[in-house]
Each structure stands twice: as structure tokens, then as C-alpha cells.
UniProtKB/TrEMBL annotation:
Catalytic activity of the protein: L-glutaminyl-[protein] + histamine = 5-histaminyl-L-glutamyl-[protein] + NH4(+); L-glutaminyl-[protein] + serotonin = 5-serotonyl-L-glutamyl-[protein] + NH4(+); L-glutaminyl-[protein] + (R)-noradrenaline = 5-(R)-noradrenalinyl-L-glutamyl-[protein] + NH4(+); L-glutaminyl-[protein] + L-lysyl-[protein] = [protein]-L-lysyl-N(6)-5-L-glutamyl-[protein] + NH4(+)
The name this protein goes by in its record: Protein-glutamine gamma-glutamyltransferase 2
EC number: 2.3.2.13, 3.5.1.44
Organism: Monodon monoceros
The family this protein is said to belong to: Belongs to the transglutaminase superfamily. Transglutaminase family.
Residue positions binding Ca(2+): 412, 414, 461, 466
């Protein structure tokens, strides 16, 4: 609390009068001043939360008389964890000092008036983070008493140059630690869609939940003293959080599921923020929350790490390869129509989500050192991956901790397609449409825009630096010359690719040779989940006598009908379109694929009234039904840091007819001055996981 305990234990080994004892009346932990100085004001309403390596204030109020230097002795004791130890760095005893000693706990007198003593306490920048108890031993001669001053939570400090997580950019500190809303990128590499997310790391109770998450991790349960000591390292804390956001081998937060069967839980696409997930986990006694997928794992980890003071951002990699045998090669085996007939040696997912942690200690050093923490299992039965320096991935240094070969493969693996004929023979096809590690995306600093950070993970394609990285990583497939035939094919998207509509896609084929090319062209479209599981066909076209004249090009349309995909489209809104051009005379196979993202209808959010400080507002939320059938079971879910105390759900009691607009109103909390973001999710029987957001700028007057 704001004031420490007044309970004291006394001892008396001398003849001095008890009336001369130094007796503490109360301790003021100066929540307002410390919250402002340590950028923890949202966390310091009822308890003290400070950042390591930076001084914080407290005021001791004594009864009868004040502290007298040379007469009284004050010794402080700070402890964390169930088995505090000075050797482990989880216990510190220190007295008053005029000098600031780097790497040590220090208390300094700042001011002394009447019976009040104002102090500054400084913690080492390498202290373990967590909940501390602070006590005082006050002695005069042979007499003394001990007092519990209170409790405080210590966080990592990106504002402190001596802290391993230090960031020198104030804009980046504001974005990667203090900002409570952001975007996670979905869709496909050719159609990237930003989904709003409420991280909410400073919402009520979230810090306590993050500390609870650390205290139920298996390493703490095995050896609590060692675990608490190792919480001085952001790398160690990152690995613990990576393991604890899933529940596969511990009491983790989320259960993953990828089969589109979420009836006994909540679809991963439903979530619009981390706060509801973390509160559910805590309120259900650390029971797993159903369900999550990689972006949900990454977003929850981002919330926890930002809350604990580690600068963190969520990153999306499009076309990610998952290593199973460490040969940096994905092999697809397909039938004569180009349909995958068995599992690839690797699996290829559309998107990998990671969180990046800023850290000062990296070899080799770079101007913006970062560690990447992927949300995939690098080894069978292991549910913790990374972190590994981003720089190591770029230069192909696979000897670096942790899981560098796995992460390097996620963004650099090569793809080979084999076509199996009726006689069982295998023929290698040419497929330049699928490149692993594309459009690596994250939210821009200070803006609601996407930033492409592919260049931080990979050198430009074909550059000498890229070839050097592949050589260092022994990536022989990438070093080999690519086979070229002079005939190329790509899948192009048409106009109006909205959910509920019919639309065209095109196979665009170019002949850059002086020869005729003839064979059969097979086009097929199928619904697909975000991790590559194919659904039924929703469009096909077979041209058995297709020819290309020398130096010519053709564009062949494929019509995709809503009635064909409506019952099978997953919540990721993706359709995979594949073209296969087979030339029997040349024994040549040309393959092209593309993932088409269908746009959801727009959620419109209107703020009624002028946003002013401490004024209640109302949000009007609406959506138009774009389908040809009614929507039933419609609900709007709304949340936003500083805008709603808890997630709010508004159910629509009647069906929403085709072409009809549905509209609801939601009451908001009285707002603080600044920038807020309202995040909305819409669900129904036929239209799911439709997201929207609205920025709310609150003026002071």
C-alpha cells in the first residue's frame, strides 16, 4: 500500500530510556511521484511499482523525534521469492550512504523536516524482477526495532543505460513498453490485413497475473530460489514466458487448436485482446484457456513482457517453414493434378508470429540489437523456442543460442514440388510463386501503419551478402542455380474479392521463348486454413489443349462462386488457387499458387459526443450484412485499455437480414487525456471474426 506496516519488533540490550528510541510511525511510498518518474503511473494507483537501476522515493515519518545521523543507525532489507539469499541476488541489506555505488542497493537522505525523513533508494540495474518486501532496522546504541515498510514490484528498465533491455529511443520505448494497443498482421503475403489488438498490459490486475505466471512455471516449482535469481535476465524471463503462454507441458495460459472445431471453447479468431485471456486463466485457477494459435500466443506473450518492462513487438512472417529434419528443404509430393497427396517432409504455414525483444547484449553487436522469440516448437515435445538474435538469423550464424537453425529455416527454407505420375515416377516441377519468408511485418512506431522489416532478417535476394549468409549456414539448395524454362505462370487476383461475393482469379502465363508450348492447364481453388489445411474445391477449370505461341502471354479466368465456398471458408478467410501447366512432350511441370484473402465487411464505430477528460462517452457500432442470407446469433464484443473496465458483449436478439445494417451502442468509461483505441469483434453463424477499431483522442478541456 501507500504506507508501510506500523508493526515493529524491538530489542533492548542497554540502559537507554525507551523514550529515546527511534520509532517509525508510518512509511509513505510516494506512489504518485514514483509512478510518474518510473513510467508506471497506471500500475501505481494502490501499490508501488518501480523500474530497476533508477532511484525511487520514500518518506519515513517517525514518532517523537527524527533520525539523527551519528546517533541512529538505519539498515534496510529487500527480499524477493520464497527463499531469499544474498548469494543469489534475491536479498539485499544496505544502510544509508552518500555515495552511489554501481551495482549495489543504495539508500540516500534527500531531505529532513520535523519528524519526516525523505529518502531515495536505488536498485542495481541487474536485480531480479518481481515482488519485493522492504523492511527497516532502526537502532540507537544497543536498542533497536524492525519495521516492514511495505512491498514493491521491480520491473526491467528500458530507460536505464545499464539495464540489459535499454533502448535509447524515447519513441520506441513509448511504442514497445507503454503502448497498450496495436495491430497483428494476418491475410496473405499479397493481401496483408492488420487486425487490431488490445494488449492492455497496464489494465487492472494484469501485473499480478504476469507475476503469477512466473510463479507457476515448472522451473520455479522445481527450484524457486534459482528461478527467482535468474529473473535478472530478460532472456531467461523471455524463455519462461514463451513456455508459459501455451499449456502443453505446464500450467500455461492457452491451449492451441488448428482443426476449426472450437465448440467447447472460443475460436482463436474471436479474441481481440490479451486481457480477457489472462483474466480467464487466473480466475479459473490457472486452467488452460481454449483456444489459441500462433498470433494469440505471440500477443499474450507481448502483453506479459511489456508489463514486466521488456520492450517487445509482435512480428508476422508470411510463408513460414517448420523444420523437421534440418535440411532447409520443404518437399511437397503431389498427384498428377498438382494436389498434395502426402505430408511434406516439412510443413509450410502461411504465417509465423514471433515477438521481438530488445536486448543490449548481442554478438556481433548491431545498432538495434533484438532477440526473436518464435511461437513454434523447435523440438518434438518441447514447447519453448528462442530467443535468438535477429542479426544471427540474417548473417546465417546457426551456432547462436537459442534454436537458430529452426528460426533461420522459418524465413529461408527452399521449396521443391514433386509430381507423381500414374506409373509412380516422380518429376520435379518449377514453382517460383512460393518464397519462404516474405513481407515480415510489424506495426510502425507511433503510427497505425505496417512496417516491412524483412531486411532485418534477410539480405536482398541475389545479393553477395545473401550468398555469404547461405554459405555460412550451409544452405546448399539456395546456393544452387535455379532452373529456368522461359515459361512463367503466376496467379493474379481480380476485383471485388469480398466475403459473400462471386469473383474471378486469373492464371497469367508468359512464354519468353521462340518456341510453341502446348499441354494441359489445370486450375483449382480450395478453401484453406491459415496453417495450410485444405478444404473442398470451390472452383476448377481444366484446359486439356492449351497452347502458347512464341513470345506471347495469356490470362485465363477462374470463376469462384460464393455458393461453393460459403460453407467451407475458415475464419482466416483464405482460398488457395493453384495452376499446373503440364507439357508432356517436354516432360515439364510448371506450378503456381496463391492465397486469396476475402475482405470482411467494415465495422463502423462512431463516438457520440466530444471526447473530453473525465466525461462519459457512448460508442455507436454498426455493420452491414453483405451476404445473401440472414445472420443469426450476432454479437459485438468491445474492449479497449482505459475505455472499458472489462470486455463488453452486446447480443443481437433477432436475425440480421441480407443487406440490413445492425447497430448497437456501448457506454464508455470517463476518459483520461490522451490517445485511446476501441477494438471491436463481430460474430454470427455465417460471418465470424470481423474486426474493427477506432482511435479516440481525449482533450484535457
Amino acid at each position: 500500500g501507500a504506507q508501510g506496516s506500523q508493526l515493529a519488533e524491538g530489542w533492548n540490550h542497554g540502559s537507554r530510556s525507551v523514550s529515546t528510541d527511534l520509532v517509525l510511525e508510518r512509511c509513505d511510498l510516494e506512489l504518485e511521484a514514483n509512478g510518474r518518474d518510473h513510467h508506471t503511473a497506471d500500475l501505481c494507483r494502490e501499490k508501488l511499482v518501480v523500474r530497476r537501476g533508477q532511484p525511487f522515493w520514500l518518506t519515513l515519518h517517525f514518532e517523537g523525534r527524527n533520525y539523527e545521523a551519528g546517533v541512529d543507525s538505519l539498515t534496510f532489507c529487500a527480499v524477493t521469492g520464497p527463499a531469499p539469499s544474498e548469494d543469489a541476488g534475491t536479498k539485499a541489506r544496505f544502510g544509508l550512504s552518500d555515495a552511489v555505488e554501481e551495482g549495489a542497493w543504495v539508500a540516500t537522505v534527500v531531505d529532513q523536516q520535523d519528524s519526516a525523513l525523505s529518502l531515495q533508494l536505488r536498485t542495481p540495474a541487474s536485480s531480479p524482477i518481481g515482488l519485493y518486501r522492504l523492511s527497516l532496522e532502526a537502532s540507537t546504541g544497543y536498542q533497536g526495532s524492525s519495521f516492514v515498510l511495505g512491498h514493491f514490484t521491480l520491473l526491467f528498465n528500458a530507460w536505464c543505460p545499464a539495464d540489459a533491455v535499454y533502448l535509447d529511443s524515447d519513441e520506441e520505448r513509448r511504442e514497445y513498453i507503454l503502448t497498450q494497443q496495436g495491430f497483428i498482421y494476418q491475410g496473405s503475403a499479397k493481401f496483408i490485413k492488420g487486425i487490431p489488438w488490445n494488449f492492455g498490459q497496464f489494465e487492472d490486475g494484469i501485473l499480478d497475473i504476469c507475476l503469477m505466471l512466473l510463479d507457476v512455471n515448472p522451473k520455479f516449482l522445481r527450484n524457486a530460489g534459482r528461478d527467482c535469481s535468474r529473473r535478472s535476465s530478460p532472456v531467461y524471463v523471455g524463455r519462461v514466458v514463451s513456455a508459459m503462454v501455451n499449456c502443453n507441458d505446464d500450467q500455461g495460459v492457452l491451449l492451441g487448436r488448428w482443426d476449426n472445431n472450437y465448440r467447447d471453447g472460443i475460436s482463436p479468431m474471436f479474441w481481440i485482446g490479451s486481457v480477457d485471456i489472462l483474466r480467464r486463466w487466473k480466475n479459473d485457477s490457472c486452467q488452460r484457456v481454449k483456444y489459441g494459435q500462433c498470433w494469440v500466443f505471440a500477443a499474450v506473450a507481448c502483453t506479459v513482457l511489456r508489463c514486466l518492462g521488456v520492450p517487445t513487438r509482435v512480428v508476422t512472417n508470411y510463408n513460414s517453414a517448420h523444420d523437421q529434419n534440418s535440411n532447409l528443404l520443404i518437399e511437397y509430393f503431389r498427384n498428377e493434378n498438382g494436389i498434395p497427396e502426402s505430408k511434406a517432409i516439412w510443413s509450410l504455414g502461411f504465417r509465423l508470429r514471433v515477438v521481438e525483444l530488445w536486448k543490449i547484449l548481442e554478438v556481433p553487436p548491431s545498432p538495434q540489437p533484438r532477440l526473436v522469440l518464435p511461437f513454434s516448437s523447435s523440438q518434438p515435445g518441447t514447447y519453448c523456442c528462442g530467443p535468438v538474435p535477429v542479426r544471427a538469423i540474417k548473417v546465417g550464424d546457426l551456432s547462436t543460442k537459442y534454436d537458430a537453425p529452426f528460426v533461420f529455416a522459418e524465413v529461408n527454407a527452399d521449396v521443391v514440388d514433386w509430381i507423381r505420375q500414374d506409373d509412380g515416377s516422380m518429376h520435379k516441377s518449377i514453382n517460383h510463386s512460393l518464397v519462404v519468408g516474405q513481407k515480415i511485418s510489424t506495426k510502425s512506431v507511433g503510427r497505425d501503419e505496417r512496417e516491412d522489416i524483412t531486411h532485418t532478417y534477410k539480405y536482398p535476394e541475389g545479393s553477395a551478402e545473401e550468398r555469404e549468409a547461405f554459405t555460412r549456414a550451409n544452405h546448399q539448395n539456395k546456393l544452387a542455380d535455379k532452373e529456368e524454362t522461359g515459361v512463367a505462370m503466376r496467379i493474379r487476383a481480380g476485383q471485388g474479392m469480398n466475403r459473400g461475393s462471386d469473383f474471378d482469379v486469373f492464371a497469367h502465363i508468359t512464354n519468353n521463348t521462340a518456341e510453341d508450348h502446348a499441354g494441359c492447364l489445370l486450375l483449382c481453388a480450395r478453401t484453406v486454413s491459415y496453417n495450410g489445411i485444405l478444404g473442398p474445391k470451390c472452383g476448377t477449370k481444366d484446359l486439356l489443349n492449351f497452347s502458347l505461341e512464341p513470345f506471347s502471354e495469356k490470362s485465363i479466368p477462374l470463376r469462384i462462386l460464393y455458393e461453393k465456398y460459403c460453407d467451407y471458408l475458415t475464419e482466416s478467410n483464405l482460398i488457395k488457387v493453384r495452376g499446373l501447366f503440364v507439357e508432356p512432350a517436354a516432360n515439364s511441370y510448371l506450378l503456381a499458387e496463391r492465397d486469396i484473402y476475402l475482405e470482411n465487411p467494415e465495422i463502423k464505430i462512431r463516438i457520440l459526443g466530444e471526447p473530453k477528460q473525465n466525461r462519459k462517452l457512448v460508442a455507436e457500432v454498426s455493420l452491414w450484412n453483405p451476404l445473401t442470407v440472414p445472420l443469426s446469433g450476432c454479437t459485438f464484443t468491445v474492449e479497449g485499455a482505459g475505455l472499458t473496465k472489462e470486455q463488453k458483449t452486446v447480443e443481437i436478439p433477432h436475425p440480421v437480414e441480407a443487406g440490413e445494417e445492425v447497430k448497437v451502442r456501448v457506454d464508455l468509461l470517463p476518459l483520461n487525456a490522451g490517445r485511446h483505441k476501441l477494438v471491436v469483434n463481430f460474430e454470427s453463424d455465417r460471418l465470424k471474426a470481423v474486426k474493427g477499431f477506432r482511435n479516440v483522442i481525449v482533450n484535457t478541456s
